[in-house]
Amino acid sequence: MAYNLLQGKKGIIFGALDERSIAWKTALRCHEEGAQIVLSNAPVAMRMGEINKLAEAVNAPVIGADATSMEDLKKLFEGAMTHFGGGIDFVLHSIGMSLNVRKGKHYTEIDYAWNQKTLDISSMSLHRVLRTAWDLDAMNEWGSVVALTYIAAQRVFPDYNEMADAKSLLESVARSFGYHYAKRKKVRVNTISQSPTVTTAGSGVKGFDGFINYAEKMSPMGNATGDQCADYCVTMFSDLTRMVTMQNLFHDGGFSFTGVTPDVIEAMGK
């Protein structure tokens, strides 16, 4: 059901790869709620995925951009503002990639050059996106930026590897830049810490099925789905959450504050 929560709003959505992507689902929901959208992803991801199919569904242009390139981001934001005929109301940052995970490097033996690339893509890309919007004065007052994260930023999930560090840095960037953007233009910047969700990117993490099953048993409401995360993103882009900023918002069915459950105890006793 649509509520017209984003009627008249305009936004950029990064990271939609295929129908399993949270960014993909969020783009569909934003469109349903009345928003105009520009889609973006890295050129290599655009070749691998099906973003043009999504673009047709939501009537949005696709502007490719490497989120580690200030030049690419400048062209993206300028192109989006030209398309919209004005400023931007919301941005979804759904960007993450670990070279050490891809190459099978254990956390205790990561390649540091690869690690720097991981942090640049997965974390500092948020700073670059915000910096670009800041320099171009691209965001409208009371705009909203959301970046997707995971609870491995706070707790140890050994096989999540260097992405745990990347998510920690991502959340720190959201807080730090969020302060400055709130002071300057009442733009809010938050992260959403989602339940483990079956996506093309997430499935590449070792033991990912175990993450999902464990979280399901630990969450009193069960795991939040990608569609439900999209709904949450819509509320964060809407005017109903104008005073929420610099927060890491857990969207995980209660997992983040549950110590133990009978389901987990029973499973451990077998």
Please provide a written account of the structure.
The chain is an alpha/beta fold and 270 residues long. The chain has a single domain, classed as 3-Layer(aba) Sandwich (Rossmann fold), CATH 3.40.50. The termini are far apart. Helix 1 crosses helix 9 (226-237) and helix 4 runs parallel beside helix 6. The protein is globular. 44% of the residues are buried. The protein has a six-stranded parallel sheet, with helices on both faces. It has helices spanning 22-32, 43-48, 51-58, 70-84, 99-102, 112-136, 163-185, 208-218, 226-237, 262-269; strands at residues 10-14, 36-40, 88-93, 139-149, 188-194, 248-251. The chain is 46% helix and 14% strand. Helix 7 (163-185) links the parallel strand 4 (139-149) and strand 5 (188-194). The protein contains ten helices and six strands.
